[in-house]
Each structure stands twice: as structure tokens, then as C-alpha cells.
Specification:
binds iron/sulfur cluster, 187 residues, Uracil-DNA Glycosylase, subunit E, alpha/beta, 8 helices, binds uracil
Length: 187
């Protein structure tokens, strides 16, 4: 584990630890405030993210931004990262070996940010962080405490694009996050 952002960012620069390295344009490391109390974890970069090197700048990200605006959640309050930092071909889910190869970077990000709340965006984030035994449909919207961090699983924003009814849940879950942060005095 690296103790500074400089070392961590340098270590990932030319990463070839998994086969996703071959197809990437840019490594998508993170966005947001490195001192945030709230961290969001997605799945992996899509085409737009790969091109720009920034997470959640495509369609799903724009929808997520709309939810932030509606709920008056300032992006400065958040740190956003993904399970894998390189784009999986055709936006397929990251495979187990890829997620595992990339996990040290994410662990290091969590170690340096020290978030009090982590929002898990979708099934890939949920299963890779909290365990395969969790399912997003039953876990979403419920707090899970693990090693001193409060986790809230919710839908992946891309799922909202396919199913309008999930938007209501997603809005509700983000509201829960804001309320919890206020209650904890970290808002
Ligand atoms: N979907 C994700 O999971 N992460 C991104 O950065 C963009 C889309
Ligand atoms: Fe390295 Fe992660 Fe990219 Fe794989 S996905 S090459 S482990 S940075």
C-alpha cells in the first residue's frame, strides 16, 4: 500500500496487471474530492470515460449528475472511483481475474480517502466489495456496516437508463446517503 497519492498514481500509470490494459485509451482513476467523507464505487469505464480518462462522464454519469442536482448534493462532497480502471471490451462486466488484479488500487484509494460512507453502484461493486453472497435487488437501499465503514448498495446508474422505475429507488437511496451524512455531522 502506498502512503501518498503521488506514489499510488505513479504505480498505476502503465499498469499491465490484467488483460484490460490492451484495449484502453486512458486509465480512469477517479474523480472528486480526495478528502471526501463519501465515496462512490462504480463498475468500470465505458467508451466516454475511456476517451476522457474521467469516471461517469457518459450517459449514465449525466443521469447521476441530475440526481445530485435535484438532491442538492455537491460533487465536492464525493470521491468517485470504479472496480476496474480500464474499459472492458463492449462494456461487458469485469471478469473475476480483472477485478482481483485491480482491487489493490481501489483498496489503496479507500485507505487514503478514509471515507465514512461508501455507496456501491450496482451488482459488480457490491459483490466485489462485500462478497458474492450479496444480491443487489435485496441489498439495495439498506445500510451495511463493515470494518467501520457504512455501505449503501444501490442501482448502477446505467440500470436507470433501461428501467425508469429504478430512478425512484436511486433518488431515494441518494437521499438516504445525504440524511445519514447530516446525521453523522459530515455534511
Ligand atoms: N459506469 C461505471 O461503472 N463507471 C463509469 O465510470 C462509467 C460508467
Ligand atoms: Fe491494471 Fe486495473 Fe487496468 Fe487491469 S484494469 S490493467 S489491473 S489498471
Amino acid at each position: 500500500m502506498y502512503q501518498t497519492w503521488e506514489e499510488l498514481e505513479r504505480s498505476i500509470k502503465n499498469c499491465q496487471k490484467c488483460k484490460l490494459a490492451q484495449g484502453r485509451t486512458n486509465i480512469v482513476f477517479a474523480d472528486g474530492n480526495k478528502q471526501a467523507d463519501i465515496m462512490l464505487i462504480g463498475e468500470g469505464p465505458g467508451a466516454d470515460e475511456d476517451r476522457m480518462g474521467v469516471p461517469f462522464v457518459g450517459k449514465a454519469g449525466k443521469l447521476m449528475n441530475m440526481a445530485f442536482q435535484a438532491l442538492e448534493i455537491n460533487r465536492e462532497k464525493l470521491y468517485i472511483a470504479n472496480i476496474v480502471k480500464c474499459r472492458p471490451p463492449n462494456n461487458r462486466n469485469p471478469e473475476a481475474d480483472e477485478a482481483m488484479a485491480c482491487m489493490d488500487y481501489l483498496r489503496n484509494q479507500v485507505l487514503l480517502v478514509k471515507p465514512k460512507i461508501i455507496v456501491l453502484l450496482g451488482s459488480v461493486a457490491l459483490k466485489n466489495i462485500l462478497g458474492k453472497e450479496y444480491g443487489i435487488t435485496s441489498a439495495r437501499g439498506k445500510w451495511i456496516e463493515h470494518k467501520g465503514i457504512l455501505y449503501l448498495p444501490t442501482w448502477h446508474p446505467a440500470a436507470l437508463l433501461r428501467d425508469d422505475t429504478k430512478k425512484i429507488d436511486f433518488w431515494k437511496d441518494l437521499k438516504l446517503v445525504k440524511e445519514k451524512a447530516q446525521e453523522m455531522g459530515i455534511w
